[in-house]
Amino acid sequence: TFDSKVDTEHFAKSVSVETIANNDYNLSVSSYVEAKDNREVIDIQKLNAELKITVEKIDQLRADIDAIVAEIEG
């Protein structure tokens, strides 16, 4: 990449001396190359649906436990 002076997205970028001067001679790569966004995309609607099902299961299990405890206590 360096020898060919080809920009590589999220990795390398060829910038002019003027651009570097305008950036107070900052040679930090992050000043010129944008980092790749590696965050996972989450489907909120799907997650909420799964959460609703899980909460319903928890509520049913709690009711079952309460019934068992009530039966044991007589």
TrEMBL record:
Protein name: N-6 DNA Methylase domain protein
GO biological process terms held by the UniProt record: methylation
UniProt superkingdom: Bacteria
Gene3D superfamilies per the UniProt record, alphabetical: Vaccinia Virus protein VP39
Upper taxonomic lineage: Bacteria, Pseudomonadati, Spirochaetota, Spirochaetia, Leptospirales
tRNA processing as UniProt keyword: no
Pfam families: N6_Mtase
Keyword Hydrolase: no
Recorded family membership: Belongs to the N(4)/N(6)-methyltransferase family.
Cited InterPro entries: DNA_methylase_A-5 (IPR003356), SAM-dependent_MTases_sf (IPR029063)
Molecular function in Gene Ontology: DNA binding; N-methyltransferase activity
Keyword terms of this UniProt record: Methyltransferase, Transferase
Species, as recorded: Leptospira interrogans str. FPW1039
Ranges of residues in domain DNA methylase adenine-specific: 1-40
